[in-house]
User: Which sequence fits this backbone?
């Protein structure tokens, strides 16, 4: 069955079920000219948006609708997390090619609703239209944060310690397994694949770091450690030194790299889509922050280096050798 | 020149100029994980979003970038107008095919900035990525409105008078001229073409009708009078009677219809993209509303019929004949 069999409004009726998981402040969801909701009193509003195009960001044949929907929302929630905010409302625009089955689409909205429910994010509106060839999804997420707790990219300071909230490189390894049709024949490979398909938005962790005023600056790792830390360095006009042996690399990634003869640190630096948070914390708060974070989440906050005023991004190896890394961001328009 | 010649970040730097026209409440625009701004205190937040796909919604060869950008934003502003709100922040996601010249894209953002400046709407963020074939634009607009002034679709009541804020059918006639390459050889045709290319968002008018508590319900005419009034009838669970001779048809449209032997009322009913507001006003307020509106805007508020409890949409001709119109919305997935 396809959307044309039930019509645009039939489709909207179907996907509208189960969209409101936090109805209290919602005056109007799907079904008017605009959605209307009461913003959190006294807070700043955050808005982020991400456009996904078939054959650029995903292949319809190698993903389920559920996984695609989940990840499309996860990437946006991660952006709100990186600002220290709470995610609240999601808006999904979708352009649907004629050959895209209704099952796939309903599954896509299920993936978003599942993740939305986990973080109390309503699916509050959007736009539904036709596409000629590629499936296109734009997700916009609105969130909020107290004004004096926002985590920017431009506020890192020399001597801040740099932390990651989770492992780096796993997602890239999972993508490698998927793209090369490598059999996922172990628990380890399964975890890597899941890291790529179901990235965790660090919303609670971002909120914690912001609320406790531990972090000076933050960003989420969507394009890779070097690219994303590069954005902080550029915006804050600082440099940084990273320690290769401190970069949090999972046992799963190590096993993967052993088998295929890759360098796990390369995967961490250039991987992308880990969606962990990178944050910088002033030295005098770092110890307390780490202790407090572990107590709260029962997970470590991994120190990976420090901010300095060099203007460069340097990687130090255990033997003392140093490599300069060019802190450029991932560019969608350059050939890779 | 193309985006790949200057890179994604070079492109973002270029289009970022002139985006902030109302900087006062903005904490962060383009250039972080999310935009951050202070919402209007005490107000409800409105969000609307529209996805435009090349070869579905526009042909790149038959529009300028400026006109495309202008109209993409105008459609969203019109949605905020139909809720009685003030538009504030716009977020533009764009997926760019390799063959789309930089000039066209800069022109597109110019069109949005021009219209944004006219209504004090910031261009506050978005997403920039690659497309394989079609140019894709998603615009999301955030606005605000006092809670007890929101204009919904579901709040029309029997005996309300129905009004339009402007002429209907002009935009459809303009599209006909464009699609059929008809020479725009008169002032009249020029006005029709402009009605299609540069639709006016009735933001001030919507706000006025909401602030003065004149209107019970409102919607903007994006799909045509019958479709959009149909949404009000369906959501409000009411019917309506329209009077053919009262439907505001411009002299320009009459001249066009004379020449090509069309019925102007058909153009008004099924036209679409006029982006006037339809609103319903209780009878006891209607006279005052019309007088007050004319005084404020020096433009008429056109009465076109009234809401009843018939559940049907009927059109009455001057000779007393009546025709029932099926109040269905435009469906992107049905063949026309």
Assistant:
């Amino acid at each position: 069955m396809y959307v044309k069999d039930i019509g645009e409004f039939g489709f909207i009726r179907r996907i509208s079920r189960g969209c409101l998981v936090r109805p209290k402040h919602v005056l109007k969801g799907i079904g008017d000219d605009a959605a209307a909701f009461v913003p959190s009193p006294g807070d700043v509003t955050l808005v982020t948006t991400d456009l996904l195009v078939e054959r650029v960001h995903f292949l319809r044949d190698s993903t389920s609708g559920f996984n695609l929907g989940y990840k499309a929302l996860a990437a946006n929630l991660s952006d709100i997390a990186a600002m220290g905010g709470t995610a609240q409302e999601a808006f999904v625009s979708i352009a649907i090619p004629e050959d895209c089955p209704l099952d796939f689409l309903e599954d896509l909205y299920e993936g978003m609703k599942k993740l939305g429910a986990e973080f109390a994010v309503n699916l509050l509106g959007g736009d539904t239209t036709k596409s000629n060839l590629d499936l296109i999804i734009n997700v916009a997420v609105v969130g909020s944060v107290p004004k004096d707790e926002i985590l920017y990219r431009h506020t890192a300071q020399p001597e801040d310690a740099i932390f990651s909230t989770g492992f780096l490189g796993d997602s890239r390894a999972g993508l490698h397994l998927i793209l090369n049709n490598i059999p996922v024949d172990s628990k380890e490979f399964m975890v890597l694949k899941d890291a790529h398909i179901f990235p965790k938005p660090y919303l609670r962790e971002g909120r914690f770091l912001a609320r406790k005023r531990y972090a000076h600056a933050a960003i989420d790792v969507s394009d890779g450690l070097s690219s994303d830390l590069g954005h902080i360095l550029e915006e804050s006009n600082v440099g940084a030194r990273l320690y290769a042996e401190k970069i949090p690399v999972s046992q799963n990634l190590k096993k993967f790299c052993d088998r295929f003869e890759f360098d796990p640190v390369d995967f961490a630096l250039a991987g992308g889509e880990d969606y962990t948070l990178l944050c910088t914390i002033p030295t005098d708060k770092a110890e307390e922050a780490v202790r407090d974070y572990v107590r709260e989440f029962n997970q470590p906050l991994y120190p990976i280096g420090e901010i300095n005023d060099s203007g460069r991004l340097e990687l130090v190896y255990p033997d003392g050798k140093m490599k300069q890394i060019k802190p450029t961001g991932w560019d969608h328009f350059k050939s890779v």
